[in-house]
Amino acid sequence: MKKAWWWVAGAAVVAVAAVSGLVQSRGGAGLWPFSEGAASVAPTRGASDAKAVAEAGVRTSTKAARAADSAASAPPLEFQAQEVVSPTWAPMPLTLTFSGALTAPATVTVRSKVGGTLQSLGVQEGSRIRVGQVIGRVDAAEAASRVAERAAMVESARATLAQAERTLAQNESLAAQRFIAPAAVDSSRSSMEAARAQLAAAQAALSATQLTLAEAAIVSPIAGIVARRHVLAGEKIAIEQQVVTVVDLRELELAGWVPVHEVARLSPGMAVTVRVEGVDDPVSGRLARIAPAAEPGSRAIGVTVVLPNPQERLRAGQYGMVRVKLGDSRPRLSLPDAAIQSSAGQHEVWTLEAGVLRRRSVILGRQDTASGRVEVLEGLPEGVQVLAARYDNLREGARALVVSDPVAKAGSGAAASPSAAASR
């Protein structure tokens, strides 16, 4: 305290000397901006100004001395050992995340191959069906009549062919006896070939009509679950009209987007973990495909993840969050993310250096959300002690120390906790 008052006295002497020199220079050199009649008043005002300046200097010096005494006499802030950390070197695996909706790639829309009245449809939404199962039938009365017509045309063509063959045989016999000209034989042979072609065409038309009759039965091409019915029994349907949609849930896909600067770290076949909404446990999958080019205007590349779903617990349309964990080949200087404070886009940490608090600006790198650590690229030397949590109202330059015994902090009357210091 004596030393502080010495500072006060010295500051007062310096202030008085400066004012006295100013008054003397103005009075002796004729610098007073007054007339001769007022010359006798100028020294009196100068003395008054000098006294006021001296008193202001004394007050300022007194406040500074009191602040210095308060800082010197304030108890140091005490931090527990677990409240202080040091930056460590360790690999930091990078985790890429992207999201999307689950889709079922094995989704089939069953259509009618014939037109007519839908006589029956024996499935509902949610019904499980097998491969080749008949799920409905179209009225085939018209198709059956066409089959009968085509069959009659085949018989007619067959009779025409038989008659042409007999005519050719007779003409060949007569030509051998030179009763008819050879041209008559050639004509008979051409008629027979035409009749044979007509028979083949009739048979082909009959086969096509019979196939149409068989397709009156609506058959599912895959095994799965009926997701939607598009028509009802009794409706008139046309050829290629949608009847039902069947979904196979045994394998699902999730399509998402990854920024172009991160997609180079991915490759098909990588293992991924997916968090699906409504499902407690994460689901394992693999990266199946990566798009060859970025989507125009988005600076993102599409990626597809395949999820095995043998128990069919997942459903198409659910939302999932994909995490891809990438290894790190080199150690990095890192801190717990709780030690980082952010303000106006700047990242800062509080350090304990030589028994006082210091605030340092740092530049961060990659972040490992699984371990809760952040890479520090610049601004923090190795081995320095860093506050592991965020405290409010800390003052740079305040005294601080680390205690290892929690009892010492409770029994010490001269020390202050960070929260108590913040309240002052």
Taking the sheet with the most strands, its summary is: 8 strands, antiparallel
Taking pLDDT < 50 over at least 5 consecutive residues as the criterion, the unreliable ranges are: 1-8, 22-47, 407-417, 419-424
Q: In percent, how much strand structure appears in the residues?
A: 25-35%
Counted beta strands: 24
- Mean pLDDT across all amino acids: 80
- Number of helical runs? 6
Shape: rod-shaped
Q: How much helical structure, as a percent, in the residues? A: 25-40%
How far is the N terminus from the C terminus? Answer: 22 Å
Radius of gyration: 49 Å
Q: Order of SSEs, N→C?
A: HHEEEEEEEEHHEEEEEEEEEEEEEEEEHH
SS-derived structural category = alpha+beta
What can you see in these coordinates?
This protein has helices at 2-28, 42-73, 141-176, 182-214, 406-411, 418-423; strands at residues 77-80, 84-85, 88-90, 94-103, 107-111, 116-121, 128-129, 134-138, 217-219, 224-229, 236-237, 242-247, 251-259, 271-276, 283-290, 300-308, 319-326, 332-336, 341-343, 346-353, 356-368, 373-378, 385-387, 400-403. The protein is of the alpha+beta class.
